Amino acid sequence: MARPNIIFVMSDDHAAHAISAYGSRVNHTPHMDRLAAEGVRMDAVYCTNSICSPSRATILTGTYSHVNGVSSIWTEMDYRVPTFIEALHEGGYRTAMFGKWHLGEHGISLPRGFDAWKIFPGQGDYVDPVMIDGDGPATVPGYATDIVTDLSLDWIGSLATDQPFCLMLHHKAPHRPWIPDQKHKHLYADGSIPEPETFFDDYASRSKAVRGVRMTIADDMGADDLKQEVPEHLRGPENRETRMRWKYQIYMRDYLQCIQSIDDNVGRLLGYLDEHGLADNTLVVYTSDQGFFLGDHGWFDKRLMFDQSLQMPMLVRWPAEIPAGSRCEAIITNVDFAATFLDIAGIDADVALPTSQGRSFRPLLRGEQVEDWADAAYYRYWEHDDPIHAAPAHYGIRTADYKLIYYYGAGLGVPGASDVVFEPEWELYDLHADPTEVRNVADDPAYAQIKAELQVKLGQYQARYQDEPYRGPGTSHPDWGPYDEELAERVATYVRQIRASS
Ligand SMILES: [Ca+2]
User: Fold this and answer.
1) Domains by residue range for the chain, with CATH
2) DSSP class of 384
3) Rounded to a whole number, what is the distance in angstroms from the first to the last CA of the chain?
4) How far does residue 260's CA lie from ligand 1's centre (Å)?
5) Key word tRNA processing present in the record (predicted)?
6) Other C-beta atoms within 10 Å of 230: how many?
7) Number of H helices and number of E strands within the chain?
8) What's the CA-to-centroid distance between 290 and ligand 1, angstroms?
9) Which helix (H) or strand (E) holds 69?
10) CA dist list (Å): 35 to 41, 230, 257, 262, 268
């Protein structure tokens, strides 16, 4: 059988609980659900650093942030670390990348290993976006989610059929500032969107680190996000609850309308594969670079290790191997994607991508049990004292039963991470007794033994991935090194072009 095509559809900040295949209470996504019905719904896929650029660098390289250098949206990729795309290209695949790239200085670096690419600079715009390709920047008329799909279908249509292809189709949506397409503006009438169970979380028992984040809908979601000022009668601490409810409806309406366009375009893509006889031997993935808080714990945004932010939705269809309507509960991270795609392409990742820290989950996609598969996901968020979100640096592990988080209290002297110091704190959640993660039991004597065991496991996972425990303010990570000077200059040229054209 011919080697399969790989289509990797990734949106930006699309939480699993806004996909009906995952039991969403707030929206309906029939085309994404079709992928789940005809393939596998992955229920425990986690990002290893819940923010845009780091997740993208991890997916491309199969490495943690401390290896590829992209610890934050401000840090440059270490171009010495190869990507699975380069390995696929080397191995005979045609490759393309369309949409949100968000790597490099100001979110712009040159994609490597792609036959064709066209990307948004930085975060990109929703309407009539500027896009960059080998000829430089130009405005593309239309709505971003449609445009990225158009470019992708045009490219697939341009290929000769005898060579397999890998397409990265990366939507800007539903990232801030949530600008929907006009045709979806009638959806979700005011007051119609249910609030999450933890909407009025009081953060009792939580760390100071978590209580200090500035991601609350009530007080931190501003006029830019809402596209209007908060009315006078909703201002002030006495109107907090009413204000939250008002903002939530606007926020979620816009967010879900953006997702509706993605779902429509997933439908277009699947329709195209059907019409062109490509469905059977094409692996289609739908995922998001990380999750998002949809009013959960009173928050929006991501970064923290709570499940709504940590989990990546992942639906995979490949009729040749994956049983329809199946589920997979094995713990997988975005570090594992690269090795998996190479495995599916019949390329030995140990040879073609020796820097990869991931492991192929292809047997898990087929529904097989893998006895020695990882029983935890290791996570590390590096940004610290970000003045906008104030999310603290932290690391931790999630098993099927528990989550242990260490807010170590300072940055590490890397770009984007300050050395502001506060008291280190632990959080521990019992995910069966407390599935919504509202009761921190790190100081509960009844959990002392479990906490001690999880601390050992955390150390083991850090050692496995050759990450360093926090050792004090100003200590840079030992693996941090310079990046490719020549490539950096070419990137800088593009940045200058962008600035000149805007
Ligand atoms: Ca993102």
Assistant:
1) 377-464 (3.30.1120.10)
2) B
3) 49
4) 17
5) no
6) 15
7) 14, 16
8) 6
9) none
10) 8, 40, 20, 13, 13
CA quadruple 296, 55, 106, 154: dihedral positive or negative? negative
Residues in the chain: 502
Residue-wise pLDDT tens digits, 125-137? 999 999 999 888 9
Please write the tens of the pLDDT for every residue from 16-65: 999 999 999 999 999 999 999 999 999 999 999 999 999 999 999 999 99
d(CA 501, CA 308): 38
Q: How far is the CA of 52 from the centre of ligand 1 (A)?
A: 4
3-state class (DSSP) for residue 119:
strand
* pLDDT value at residue 477: 64
- Which of 73, 123, 72 minimizes the C-alpha distance to 101? 123
**Bridge pairing between strands 165-170 and 94-100:** parallel
What is the 495 CA–ligand 1 centroid distance (Å)?
22
How many CB atoms neighbour CB 320 within 10 A? 12
In angstroms, what is the span from residue 448 Cα to ligand 1's centroid?
Answer: 35
Q: Are 87 and 60 contacting, i.e. CB atoms less than 8 angstroms apart?
A: no
d(CA 360, CA 337): 7
Residue 452 CB coordination number (10 Å): 10
Count Cα atoms within 13 angstroms, Cβ side, for 467: 26
297: alpha, beta or left? (left if phi > 0; alpha if psi -120 to 50): left
Residue 224 dihedral angles phi and psi, to the nearest 5°: -60, -40
Residues 6+ apart with CB under 8 A from 335: 48, 58, 62, 63, 64, 356, 357, 358, 465
Locate the DSSP E strands across 22-83.
40-42, 45-46
Distance 477 CA to ligand 1 centre (A): 24
C-alpha of residue 130 to centroid of ligand 1, in Å: 19
Q: What is the 3-state secondary structure (H, E, C) of 187-231?
A: CCCCCCCCCCCCCCCCCCCCCHHHHCCCCECCCCCCHHHHCCCCC
The one-letter amino acid code at 243 reads R
CB-neighbour burial class of residue 321 (10 A; exposed 0-12, middle 13-18, buried 19+): middle
Q: How far is the CA of 133 from the centre of ligand 1 (A)?
A: 22
pLDDT tens digit sequence for 283-341 = 999 999 999 999 999 999 999 999 999 999 999 999 999 999 999 999 999 999 999 99
Backbone angles phi, psi at 163, to 5 degrees: -120, 135
pLDDT tens, residue by residue, 215-227: 999 999 999 999 9
- For residue 417, the cross-strand partners are 384
Output the six-digit token pair for 32: 């994404």
Average pLDDT, rounded, for the chain: 92
Pairing outcome for strands 45-46 and 332-333:
parallel
Ligand 1 centroid to Cα of residue 12, in Å, is 4
